[in-house]
Each structure stands twice: as structure tokens, then as C-alpha cells.
Amino acid sequence: MIGSVKIKYNLIIILIGTLLLSGIATLSAGQDNSKPLNYYLKNLPFQMEDIKEPSFPDHIVNVTEYGAIPDGHTINTQAFADAIDACVQKGGGMVVIPPGTWVTGSIKLQSNINLHIESGALLQFSSRIEDFPLLQGLGGSSKKIVVAPLIYGYDLKNVAITGGGIIDGAGEVWRPVKKEKQTNSQWKQLIASGGVVSSDGKIWWPSKEAMEGEAYLKELERTKQDRTRADYAQAREYLRPNLVQLVQCNGILIDGPTVRNSPKFHLNPMRSENIIVRNITIQTQWYAQNGDGLDISSCRNVVVYNTTVDAGDDAICIKPGKPGKDQPAGPTCENIVIADCIVYHGHGGFVIGSESYGGARNISVKNCTFIGTDVGLRFKSLRGRGGLVENVYVDGIQMRNIENEAILFDMSYSEGDPERQAREGADSKRSEGVNGSTPHFRNFFIKNIICNGASRPLLINGLPEMPVTDIQIENLYVESEKGVICLDADSVFLRNVHLKTLKGSVVSLNQCRDFVFDRMVYPQNVELFLDVEGEKTDNIQLQSIDLTVAKKGIQFGKGVKPSAVIQK
Asked: Of 8, 138, 175, 509, which has the most beta carbons under 10 Å away?
């Protein structure tokens, strides 16, 4: 009898998995680069105005006209600047970098310029750190001193980076490397290449100045109020720049190139509006420190599609921080569409946070594939950097070989392992007062998710003073080592969930209220289906769930009323 039940269960799982996979495969089959921009703006779950592509005059300027040489060693910084200036003098247009290897320092973009890197062109940024000047912010008037990003623009209108060429940031010159992320032979080879190793032997740095930069800056900021560029020069090698950073711009197009090997973040539009990112590849080593792929920081009206990311940190990330000087009040991240994207490595496939104090609203993520990321869907924040994040819609995500959680909500990011906190429950943290910087995540709608291989299908680690609320998850199929675990969450609805859980309880809840589990399938003979803890836990509804499949259906912790769980 037991054998026949197991066969029936396996057939159900195979059938459902096939149906879900075929549904998403249908979406994938329709994926091609010929979809027009307006395709991605139709049938959204929120109102969003059309985004128009930046348009440019017909003028074309070739960098060779201004002395640029593609020999792989000549520094072309001035020639590129002259070509861009000449194009601006003509009213704007396209600055062309033809096939060849072009070495350069920082490139400053201007309004109405399309920097076009042709197929066969390698835009190789210099390995000489002095080729990247210190700036008083990108606008030139800030008190904050930064190293110029490799490609940057400030307060621009109509700007683009296009073409099928490759942009390489020479990140190995800047980035530290952790020993734990290297094999023994890689670590020995890295040390033999030069640089220095920290006193604890855990981190390799490209130079002594880079290693000591953080401590130097802290001392400088403690002892000197009026700081100059010269003061920061000693820490220059520590102040890693981003590869492409466009700040307070309106009308951005990034279309076609491969962007790789950044000193820090790869693409970072910030406090900008009307952005299109498509048909690009972002690639760096999986161990690249702070090697984020695409960070959308305080931007509105954004469309990202047909993009492939292989990152060392968060892959595609929304960062709701400070608003721009010309942005009206409201969430700093709003009306963002991400579709038809692939992520191979990263700390998260799609991420929101960790800063969320600017607020985020109206975000759609659809038809994406994550393979080998640490977490699939990663939503993170923390006290002091939090804000309201709401109306997030995720539909049609395929995942494989996810190291940790398929879906993670962590409101105590950087304060320890979220799984440990969720397991320890109320003992892991105490309630604090609610203020404007308390993380508040609500109204997430997640459906049609397949994950073949993860540690957990879902982990929610909320705050006692501000639970994660109003989460709907539908059509979830996950093969995982462990089950669902939630701490400090309210109003969570899971429908049509199919778990292949290998050990432990299928679901663990602590300090959770108003949960609905509707039609959940799980393996035969697991030890426990539902473990409930916490005196606040109440109104946990189980609908169309067969508890006899588990060895034990429900386990009540101390202080939990039996009436807290309702079976229907």
C-alpha cells in the first residue's frame, strides 16, 4: 500500500512539474531579440507611461579622426575626449570606436552622445590607476571625493552606449580577493603575482595602499574637516570606481555591448529617469568582491530585457536610496520592468536592497532564468536603512542549483544568518520602535516559479515591530534540502505549492499570523508537516492538504493555542 502511494505521489509531482515547466517553456520559446520595446510595456500590473528611446542627430565622429590608436598600449583618453567634444560641437550624434584594442582612462559622456563600440572593438580600460582622476563627486562640486568611474555622466539628457563590442574594466588591478573563494593553487598564484596579504592571511590586496585605505580614510575623516583631493590621494587605490555610472540623467540607452571585469559595480544608473537596458552581457569572476552586475539606484521608468549577467555579487538589483535633485517626491525606485533575462552567478538573481529608505513601488520581473546563484529572489533590508517597498510582481522564473533560498525576505540583513535567526525565533531579536527607516515590505505577488535544487524554497525573516506582510505565492515547485521557514510575517498566502523536501519539517512558523496554505503537495513520510512556535502565531489555515502523508501532522510549541491552526 505504501509503495503504491509513493508511486502515485511521484507521478503527481512529475505531472505537475511537467505542466509548470511547459508553461514557462512556452514563455521562453517566445523569447527573441526582435520584440519591440513597447512589448514590454503592455499588460503590466500597474500603470506605466511609454518610454521613448533616446534619439540622436545623424552626425558620426570616429575616434581615429582625433588621434586614437588601437594598438593595445597607447593611452587614448585625450583622443576619446576630443572626439566626444567635437561631436557635441556639431549638436550631438554617434562617437564610433571601430574594431581594435583601445586602451583608455576614464571617459566622460555628454548629452546627446551615443558612444558606439563596434563589434570587434575591445575598449580596454587602463591598468594604471593614475589614469582615473579624483573628482569632487561626478558633478564636480560635491564634498565627497571619488575616483572617476570608467565611463560616467552627470546631469545629462539623451545618452547611450551601444554596439557589439566589449568593455573591460581591468578590475583585477583594483579588487581585493578573499582566500576562502580561491583554490590553493589559485591563491598561491595570486600571491606570486604581487600585492600584499592582510595580517590574518584571509584577503589579498593589489597594493599596500589599497589594503590600508579604509583605516586611513576613517582617520582622515575623524581628524580633518576640510578635506581636499590631495588628502584622498593616499587612499586612491582603495576607492574603487564603478565601470559605468550615469547620475541624474534623463533618457539612457545601453544596448548591445559586453561589459566585464569591473573594479566594482558594472552598470549603475543612479537617480535617473527613462532608462532602457537591453541585449547586453555583464560578466565577471564569481568571486569578484562587490562585483554587482546591474544596480538600479533610485531610478524611475526603467526597462531591462534580453540581458545576461554573470556576477560576483548581486546580479540584477534595485537600490532605493536618495532621490535626485530634479526628481519629484515619491518612491525613488518606481515603474521598473525586468524581463527575458538570464543570471548565471550572483549573490541574488533578482534583488531589492539592502538600502530601501528611498522606497520602491511598481516593479515587474518576468520570464527570467537563474542558474547557480546564492539566492534566487532576494529581498533584503535592515533597521536604519529601511523604507516602504510594495507592489512587486514576479511571474515565470526558472531556477537551478540555487545555493541557499529560492525566495528570501531578510529584514535583518548584515546582522547574521537569516536561517539561524528564523530558527531561534523571538530569542534572536527584540522589538524596537517603528520610524521612517524601519523596513516595510508588503504586497509581493509571486507566481509560476520552478526551482530544481535549493537549500530552502522560502525563508521570511521579518521584524517583530514590522512583519513582512501581504505576500502571495502561487504555483511554486521546488526541490530543496529543507522546508519553508518564516519568522515575523503576516498575511501570507501560498497556493498550489509542490515541495520535494528531503529533511526536517515541511513548514516552520514562528510569530506568524493570517497564513493560508492552499493545496500543498509534499513527500511521503516526512517527519513533520507543520511546526508552529511563538505566542503571536494565530489563524494558520490549511486548505486541501493531506496531513496523513507526514509521520506527524502538526507540532505546537510552548504558548501556541491549538486553535491557532485551522484545517479545512
From this structure: 509
